[in-house]
Structure formats: structure tokens, C-alpha cells
Here is the input.
Amino acid sequence: MSAVMSAAMQTAIDRRSFLQNALVAPFLIPAWQPAPPLAYTAELANLMRAAPVPGAVIGALHKYKLSWIIPLGVRAEGSPEPITASTLFHAASLTKQVTAYAAFAFRAQGKLDFDRPLVAYVNDLPNPAARVVTARHVLSQSSGFPNWRFSEASKPIPDLVPAFTPGTRYQYSGEGFFYLQRVIEHIGGAGFGQLVHDLVFQPLGMNSSTLIWDPETLARTALPHDRHGELREGWDKSARAVRAYAARIGKPVAQLRYDDYAAATRETGDPVLPNWMLPNGAASLVTSAEDYARFVAAAIRNPELGQQQVAINEFLGWGLGWAIERTSGQTYLWQWGDNGGYKNFVLAEPSTGSAIFVFTNGDAGVRVYDRVLTNATGHDHPALFWL
Here is the structure.
């Protein structure tokens, strides 16, 4: 056996041993349990300037309760205004777990059957394969729908069509969650924003959270930045347009339903497709670290979340609303968020009620949350390698 091959085999053995030993350790390494070490956060703040990522906030839970929140950096590049625990971030795809929470609430009320085709509630999918898609398929990212459809505003809207038989394999889809949003509106008889407020925000005390960003909260909002650390333009266009439309028709913004926000989108000249529409059950949550900690603490109590519905690979799969990471008998729930100028991540261990989440306001934020999660837990995560 060559020395090179022997060294490679030993590295593989050492890595497996490291992962096996690491995964029997506490969710957070001892040094991080009361809070990240000051020396570490100081180093991270310096590295964020190099990235560049103007601001971030890190939060941790233990036994389903908030342990700590650490804000870093500033709300906007060049601004003296610091990030705080109440600073508002666009959560991006971390919105999907909020939509899943609302879906579970309706199922508990006997109003939503996870295994009934969604067209039984909102019947406007002509494609035969699309007509068998259920809430279970959407929540488990196995609907086969694309992440987003695209079209020029003047062109016909493409049909929503699965790429494979629903339920047979994984394919990430924001479109699926948006269609589930329409089903939830139909079941609840109200706007999606109002229903999420009533089912999620209000009972959990998430008083600063919304699905349509409010310009009146600009002074509290972490602004989005590109990979050069420059402020992204046009990030607030859709929210301002929808709120202006609601004011013009005399309707509370939370009560807007699909036909309303489709009309508002049409007025902006954008394609009337989910990726341009607000509220959006796949991507439009605006929240603070304080609020989000309350949500995660409540959400991960649901034992069904860790029941894998579809496999991605030997380490990863998808449950009902959350991604799953399984290694050496331990189960983590996770989700990444990726909107222009915002990069976020949440990782949770339901068996201990532990979680850690990171929100950032820069396109280089992936480097920040990767470093934080690896250091906080003391080991690598297959999910971060997969992304």
C-alpha cells in the first residue's frame, strides 16, 4: 500500500472518528454555552469587515428557552447604528418554517389534510402531475415543482409543472410553499398575512414580525449589502408597492389575498409570479432575533419535524417543513436563508431543545454562519458542505 493511500485512509478514519466523538458532545461546546467567548466575537467582527458583511446577529436556545443573543456590526455600511437584538432582518427561506407551522395549526383544527391534493382546496393546476401534489409533498420538498418560475411581464405565465412524480425525490421549491400559502388563505378565509399573525406571531409574542416589510421600521432594519459591501438597490420596491396598493384600495395589508397582491405586482410591471409577490410564504418573513428565538423554541417541539419524508443523501433529508441532518444517531433540523443581501441559517437539536441561528445583512454572510456554526458546535456539519 502506498504511503499516499495509507495517509488518505488514515485521514478518512480520523475524520469518521472525529465526527462520531463530536456528535455525542453537547449541542454547544462548553465555552459557548453561556455565550461566545469575547475573544472569538472580536475576531469574528474583524473578519466580517474583511468579508465584507456589515452586520450579524447570533442567537442560541437551550431547553427550549433563549440562552443568549449576540449582535455584531452595524445596520448599514458606513453607519454608526449598531445591530441589536431587536434589529429587523429579512429571514429569506427561514420563512418556510413559519408557513409549515401555520399548516400544522390548520391540520390540528381538522381543516387541512396533508395527504389530500392541494387542488381540492385551490383548483387551478391544469397539469395532471401537478394535480396530485399534496401539502406533505410541499413541506417535504418533494413536490417536483421548480424553485421559481420566470417569465417576461408581457409573456404568458408558464404552468406549474412537477419535474418528476411528486413524493419520489427531493427538489427544493419556493413555488410549492407559495401554492400552499394560497391553500391556507382559502381554508382560513382571510389574507395570508392575517392568518400567520393569528396562528403564529400573536400566540408566540412575535410582535415585531411581519410578512411584508414596513417602511416605518426602516430605522430598525438591517439593510442588505452585496459581496462588495455596497448597499443593494431596489430591495424595498415590492414591499412599498404592495403597501401603497393596500392603502389605495382601503384594505389592511395583512388582509390582502392572492388576487390583491397579484394586482399590486402587475402594477409594478413585474411578472405575476410568486418570486415577485408579497406576502410570500417561502421567503418574505421580516423578524428580529428576539422574535425568531420565540418561534424556534415553539416550532422544534413538534416531533413530526424530524420524521424524514425524502432522502437527499446518506446524511441529509427533508421532514415536514425542515431539512434534516442525521449522523451517528443524532438528528438536527436546519434551514438556510438566501435573499439578495441577506444570508441566514438555523440549526436545531429537538431532543435537547437547543438551537443556534445566524442572520447577516451581506451576500458574503455564508462565510459568517459557516464559521459560527462549526465553532459553536465543535464539529463540521454535512449540511454546510452540501450547500
Observations:
- Confidence is low (pLDDT under 50) at residues 1-9, 11-23.
